[in-house]
Amino acid sequence: TYDVCEVRPGPNLNMIVGANGTGKSSIVCAICLGLAGKPSFIGRADKVGLFVKQGCLKGVVEIELFKTPDNIVITREIQVVNNTSAWFINRKPTTLKTVEEQIAALNIQVDNLCQFLPQDKVGEFAKLSKIELLEATEKSIGPPEMYQFHCELKNFREKERELEVNIHIIETESSDCRETSIIKFNNLCRDKTNSLEKMRQRIERYKQDVERYHERKRHLDLIEMLERKRPWVEYENVRQQHEEVKQSRDQAKEELKNLKEMQSPVTKKIQETEEYYKSLDMKIRDKAAEIKDISQKCKQKQDALEMKDKQIEEIHQALRMKKDEEMDRQRKIHNTHKMIEDWKNELNTMAACENLQPQTDAVNNELKKLQEERAHIDSDISDLTAEKMNQEREKKRIIDRLGQLNNIMNMKEENLKGRFRDTHSALMWLRKNKDKFKKKVCEPMMLEINMKDNRHAKYVENHISANDMRAFVFESQEDMEMFLMRDHQKLRVNAVCAPAESCAESLPSRPIEELHRYGFFSYLRELFDAPHPVMSYLCSQYRVHDVPVGTEKTRNMIERVIQETKLKQIYTAEEKYIVKVSAYTNLTLSTNTSLRVAQFLTSSVDTDERRQLENQQQDINNTLKSLDTRLNTLFERQKRLEHRDNELRQQKKELLERGNRRRQLESKIGVKYDSLKQLEQDAINLEKESQQANVKIKEINIQKARLVIELMHLIKNCVSLNFLKADLVLQSTTVAAEKNRLESEYKAASVQLRAAE
């Protein structure tokens, strides 16, 4: 029913009531499961995943409990797929045991039916004996030590009885038989008294059963007597009903006869009205057919009138086109005259023999200089291209060397695949689906950790658990949950989440220089490189920034080191020491183990060489970028020279064409004179065209007048027919109303007649 529900009960909540389906069990189940209760306490399902809403993959219960000085917020996230739970206290991850301790400290007992009673456990509560109820009540409302004291008291009582038996045996051996007989008699009396009390209680319960039996016997006797009387009462009732029905039948026969006599004249009148109504309906249909025929003829006349209007409009349109055509001809004649005049003026002003040779020579000289400059640029481009090819060959060599270094990473991946196949499968899936995650995801730590010196790999591997060595590291809890689901592949992999606040830059409790005199040369963190989330997790979880690594010198003076430095974890050349202080005796206790041989981190990449190659690659990229810039500048310059070359060649072409301009103008003037002569011959007589159009329009108007007269006659006939039809419709309506009235009366009488029959 609910996706999200928030309940705020008061401090005295002791009952949850409501109709079926309103959510009582949702609240009760949330309280039980959210306070570390088992599904069996509720009595509905045996797995926590079955309490999540159908269709959802996850359910969350958050409960805030009053506690001084600050309230405590307990959160439980239930995963449906693998039926697991994640616990949080005040939004921080924790374990089930910690949650149970917090709840026990507040004296909350969801498994105690006297303190927490689900609906499905009411029957089980009713079956509790008095002793069980007493113990449950003590646990529920008493102080924590009350039930403990009660259990101790019962144990003391059992011991007391055992001691009494022993005492009796001793007295039997040391004293006379009279005292022993008295003790046995007292024990026998006590047992008989207890038996008597139990029998009295049993008799009280049997009294109620006997009373209920006698009451049932009285009811059965009364039922038997009434069953004997029932047939006589039923016969008398039916006989009276028979007499009443006979009288009603005779009366109904008389009423039926009267109704039939009254209905005969109404039937005859209805038939006459029906025949008259049908004759009127036939006349109305005839008039409607005549009106339809005349309306069709009117429509034809109107269409003919519209056609005549269109013919007149077409004549007007043709006349307008003739006028536009004549105006266009006059405009073309005027433009042609003006063009011929302009060309004649240009011919008059043009010199008979213009000297263009000096300009042509200047253009040729500039073209020669441009070609020389372009040759120099082509040479520079060739040199820069050769240098660029050399740089690209060097870049390829560096990339190949980096590939060799990456092969070491491939060896580490093969090691991972051989030892942890599920983790390797998850790694392949991660690399294909990195775009699905919101924040950075680090591969397994054994691939991400890079030792600065392979000899130190054993310290790191002995400090970090094997499970975490093959764990993926996430910056986001949400990303980690999505990764663990990953398409239901059911792979067994480990994943951890880096702390929200980075710990990668955390400082050690003291500088390493202070520990040099004990033989320590570095902290664990300085022995390897790792991505920021991995380093942050290791500093938070394993405190690698505060665990020093020593030498054989440290091993030789280990007792002094432990006493003076107060360090919790210490590494010597071949051993690991863990130091603890006893909470009871305050004594310092230390355990040491031999270091295992490194298995995962021995294949490391030379980070200095890799960094140097990456720097060289960056320098080559910068050089290539500079060469590309210079080449682009030369290409731009070459493009500008080509553009200038094209302009000069165009100028040279125009100078050559100016000599042919006079002949072209004389030829164009001759062509225009021929065109002008043709335009003058194509003149249109607008006055004659207008007279012809008026004659055609007059003939069409005469035809329109005849059509209008015929249309008027048709409309008059149609109006008269409509008047006649309206009169007939009014008569038909009156007759129909009378017919309906008679039929209504006939139907009412028919209903009475059928009822009477």
From TrEMBL:
Residues 153-262, 353-401, 610-703 form a coiled coil. Gene3D superfamilies: 1.10.287.1490, P-loop containing nucleotide triphosphate hydrolases. One of its GO terms (molecular function) is ATP binding. The keyword Signal does not apply. Keywords: ATP-binding, Chromosome, Coiled coil, Nucleotide-binding, Nucleus. One of its GO terms (cellular component) is Smc5-Smc6 complex. It is found in: Chromosome; Nucleus. It comes from the Eukaryota. The keyword Nucleotide-binding applies. One of its GO terms (biological process) is double-strand break repair via homologous recombination. Belongs to the SMC family. SMC5 subfamily. This is Structural maintenance of chromosomes protein 5.
